[in-house]
Design goal:
With about 170 residues, this protein is mainly beta. The protein has 2 domains: about 30 residues, no CATH class; about 100 residues. About 10% of the residues lie in helices and about 35% in strands. The protein has a 4-stranded mixed beta sheet, with no helix packed on it. A 3-stranded antiparallel beta sheet has the order 1-2-5, with no helix packed on it. A hairpin with a 2-residue loop joins β1 and β2. It is elongated and about 105 Å long.
Length: about 170
């Protein structure tokens, strides 16, 4: 017992005389580090500066150069488990059109969704085939949050538009 007391006293005196214990990780007061100033916005949220991989001048603005489909001949809206699927079919002057897509367009009414039927024309002339071979279909999946409060869906083409109501 006497030996343990002597060794403990020596270790404690050695540690007490050492100034580096105050800044070491053995000291429980140093476990969390010192405080630092943090920027806060008007809502009391921390403002952090995130580094990004985006170019300094920003990304170029994308302009869709695809023309509108000539004529929309059919439009359907089918309920799905996650919302709805809008399907539109366009009649074309010839075969070979590709890259068809329903592109969201701005609407002046809150209860209406508007889509433009855009596609690319073939680079070379393709012979006119049967009417069924000169059709192209595009679809767009909409979630329940996308169609909440929506009463009308409109798909526009170059020669007109078609609409479906819920």
């Amino acid at each position: 017992m006497r030996r343990q007391v002597i060794i403990s006293g020596l270790v404690l005196s050695l540690l007490a005389g050492c100034a580096t214990v105050r800044e070491s990780r053995f000291n429980p007061l140093n476990w969390f580090g010192k405080s630092e100033a943090v920027a806060v916005d008007e809502n009391g949220q921390n403002v952090t500066v995130l580094r990004t991989l985006a170019p300094r001048k920003g990304y170029p603005v994308f302009v869709d150069t695809r023309p509108l489909a000539p004529q929309i001949i059919e439009l359907q809206m089918v309920k799905s488990a996650s919302g709805a699927i809008v399907t539109a079919t366009a009649a074309l002057p010839s075969a070979g059109y590709y890259d068809a897509e329903l592109v969201a367009a701005p609407s002046d009414r809150a209860d209406t969704l508007v889509f433009d039927f855009r596609l690319r024309a073939p680079s070379e002339t393709v012979p006119a085939l049967s009417p069924a071979q000169r059709q192209i279909t595009a679809a767009k999946s909409l979630s329940n949050t996308d169609i909440a409060g929506i009463r009308t869906v409109i798909v526009r083409g170059a020669d007109g538009a078609r609409q479906v109501r819920r």
